[in-house]
Amino acid sequence: MKFFLDTANIDEIRQGVAWGLVDGVTTNPSLVAKEGVGFHDRIKEICALVNGSVSAEVTATDYEGMIKEGHVLAKLHDNVTVKVPLIPDGIRACRTLSQEGIKVNVTLCFSPSQALLAAKSGATFISPFVGRLDDISQDGMQLVGEIVKIYKNYGFPTQVLAASLRHPQHVVQSALAGAHVGTMPFSVLKMLFNHPLTDIGLKKFLADWDKVKDQVLKK
Ligand code: E4P
Fold it and tell me: Whose CA is nearest to atom 1 of ligand 1?
């Protein structure tokens, strides 16, 4: 399973890359707005740091506008994946951009029927939003599993990018469901490390070592 960071924050990306755990990055207009920096400059900065797909989202909602923005974004760097929303013009733009050899991430997917449209239009990634479905008392993880199954049934090459992951269990369940990618905030990536027994065990190892280290190192 690939790990993408869902952020436009450079410090977070730098830390994740230093751990060797970042296979790509997803951004969205809300995440970029939070940083208060130039959109294109930030995408180029991220691409220079990350050896993998970097999703940059169009803000046009009409086909022509999406194609125009998609071309500009794709020219920023080879790592750019153009993100389009799952609306009719977005699906049409997905087909055109994909046929031109540009990688496309279809975002804001909330149903298996929508995921089928993206796969049939040549999307590189489909992004089912797990947390946002959970927020309205629906089963976001069930959606991930259903899309994985449908894509397998027909051999669609579109990769399932589980998005809107809010905690470590979302990541684990996405992996169990067979998602190709999980995109998560930096806070969730950090939480994946956590286990109290690791901390307790390390403390004990070091305390035991402390008691004898002078003798052992002299030998
Ligand atoms: C994915 O590409 C989206 O940017 C993201 O996962 C949305 O997550 P949220 O629902 O926590 O905002």
Answer: 163
- Ligand 1 atom index nearest CA of 83: 2
Q: 2-218 in CATH: which number?
A: 3.20.20.70
Q: Please identify, by atom number, the ligand 1 atom nearest to the C-alpha of residue 28.
A: 4
Its pTM stands at 0.96
In sequence order, which residues have a C-beta less than 8 Å from that of residue 1 and are 6 or more positions away?
174, 175, 179, 180, 181, 182
Give the model confidence (pLDDT) of 131-178 as tens digits. Answer: 999 999 999 999 999 999 999 999 999 999 999 999 999 999 999 999
Alpha carbons 169 and 176: distance in angstroms, whole number: 10
What residue ranges do the domains of the chain occupy?
A: 2-218
Radius of gyration of the chain (CA): 20
